[in-house]
Every structure is written in structure tokens, then in C-alpha cells.
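step=encode ok
step=design start
structure_in=
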């Protein structure tokens, strides 16, 4: 099936190229008979063939794509750990993060915490949810500043890290909300850097595509960035093992319509990355 899709994609690109070449020949032929005063008009017509006209919108894409911008805000953290410190780093997190997760004083939840298995090595990934949006995030940050255990944790953690970065995310309305699950599972975080201005298109296609990827409960959560790297999408998947991942992904190609989604979403991507991750003991997603 994948081979058939490649043939169809190649055929579609060939037809598109042929149309573009025909248009180019037509413009060149027309210019041979045009006066110099009509050059600007010809250029504008030619450019219009390749410039997509976008209808004006009065709403931000975050409002159009998420369930409710004020309901759930997510923070994803990427910590690059010194290789010799990874075990100690994991132990440090196991001693503190679950206590923050369980304490109702903090309006936040630890969704999951992992070590990268394949992808960027010696990396930890943490995903937090803030119920109540940005006010909840601000409340947690202010309260943690007064938490002496957290202050000591950050000081000790800083000795183990080489670098760190984070992003604030919203969840797509058509994805499941991540909920704790029993293991053992491996998790794949697929990250897509989209071309600016294409988030709505991505959402429209994936609102249909997610239906093809629910059969084995592999879909965990789908998010898009608000602060940090912009036009970034993260899809989080769960599998029993690498072979289960392979079988599940191949099975999607057997469903009518999946090839079309891939065909139309690939041009929206500037860069993509995949991490295979193992949950730590502190992770609610096992």
C-alpha cells in the first residue's frame, strides 16, 4: 500500500509540475507580444498562480483549534542531562515531582515523564497540565517559589543538566485528553515544525485523520505551541513495543483515506522529529 501511495504522490507531483511548466510557457509566449507598459500586469498575473489567497479571519488559530483556551494549558520540558548523572536525575525527580502532582494546593498535574530511548540521547521529557490556563500556571510558579523543597531540588538539578528548554502548548479539540494508563508501554513523541500560516489546514486534515489512529488506543494526546518554537505540533502515541508500533503504523495505510491525509499534510511540514521514550517510575503514563 505504501508503494502505491508513493506512485500516486509521484503522479500528482508530476501533473502539478506539468501544469506549472505549461503556465510558464504561456507566460513566456504572452510576454513576447506584450508592450513594456503591461509587464507589471503580466507579473502580477503570473505571481497569482502561486500565491494562495487566504480569507481574513477574526479569530486566532488557538481559538479555532482548541477545546477551550482557558481550560487546559500544557508545558513540555526537554532536559539534556549529563550522561553520568541520568540515574541520579531520575531519582531526584521521583522524590519530588509526584508530591507536587498529588498536592491539590498546586493546580497542576504531571501528565508524564520519560527518558528518551531513541532520538536525542540522555534527555528527559516532562509534560505538565495546568487546569485553568495561564492563571493556573502563574499561581503554580508563585507558590513553588515559596517551596523550600522545590528550591533545593532546582539547585541540585542544575548540577546535572547541560541544557533545558520548554514550550507552552494547547491541546487540539479532536484529540483525546491524556489520562493515566497502565504499562508497560513505550511512547513516541512526533514533533512537526509547520510552515507559518498552515496550522488551520493541519488541524482540518488531522480532525479526520485521528479516526484512523484510534483502533489500538495508540493516540495519547495532540498539542500545538503557543510560546516557544511557534507553529510546532506534538503528537504523543503509546505502543506495547517497537514491533507493535510498526504493525499499527502499517495498518493505517490499509484504511481508505489515510494516504490522502499524508499526501496533503506533508507539504505543510518544514521539519519533523521522532523520539521513542520510556516512562520513568514517577510517570502517570506507564
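sequence_out=
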Amino acid at each position: 500500500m505504501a508503494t502505491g501511495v508513493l506512485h500516486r504522490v509521484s503522479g500528482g507531483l508530476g501533473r502539478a509540475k506539468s501544469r506549472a511548466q505549461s503556465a510558464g510557457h504561456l507566460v513566456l509566449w504572452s510576454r513576447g507580444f506584450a508592450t513594456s507598459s503591461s509587464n507589471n500586469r503580466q507579473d502580477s498575473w503570473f505571481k497569482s498562480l502561486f500565491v494562495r489567497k487566504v480569507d481574513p479571519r477574526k479569530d486566532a488559530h488557538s481559538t479555532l483549534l482548541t477545546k477551550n483556551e482557558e481550560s487546559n494549558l500544557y508545558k513540555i520540558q526537554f532536559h539534556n542531562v549529563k550522561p553520568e548523572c541520568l540515574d541520579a536525575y531520575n531519582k531526584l525527580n521521583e522524590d519530588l515531582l509526584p508530591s507536587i502532582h498529588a498536592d491539590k494546593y498546586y493546580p497542576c498535574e504531571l501528565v508524564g515523564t520519560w527518558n528518551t530511548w531513541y532520538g536525542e540521547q540522555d534527555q528527559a521529557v516532562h509534560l505538565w497540565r495546568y487546569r485553568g490556563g495561564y492563571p493556573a500556571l502563574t499561581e503554580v510558579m508563585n507558590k513553588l517559589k515559596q517551596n523550600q523543597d522545590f528550591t533545593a531540588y532546582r539547585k541540585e538539578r542544575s548540577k546535572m543538566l547541560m541544557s533545558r528548554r520548554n514550550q507552552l502548548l494547547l491541546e487540539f479539540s479532536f484529540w483525546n485528553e491524556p489520562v493515566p494508563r497502565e504499562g508497560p508501554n513505550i511512547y513516541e513523541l512526533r514533533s512537526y515544525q509547520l510552515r507559518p500560516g498552515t496550522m488551520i489546514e493541519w488541524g482540518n486534515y488531522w480532525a479526520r485523520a485521528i479516526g484512523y489512529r484510534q483502533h489500538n488506543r495508540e493516540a495519547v494526546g495532540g498539542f500545538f505551541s503557543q510560546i516557544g518554537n511557534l507553529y510546532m505540533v506534538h503528537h504523543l502515541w503509546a505502543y506495547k513495543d517497537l514491533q507493535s508500533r510498526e504493525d499499527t503504523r502499517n495498518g493505517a495505510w490499509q484504511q481508505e483515506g489515510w494516504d490522502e491525509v499524508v499526501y496533503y499534510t506533508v507539504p505543510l511540514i518544514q521539519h519533523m522529529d521522532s523520539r521513542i521514550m520510556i516512562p520513568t517510575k514517577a510517570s502517570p503514563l506507564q
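step=design ok
step=annotate ok -> Confidence is low (pLDDT under 50) at residues 1-57.
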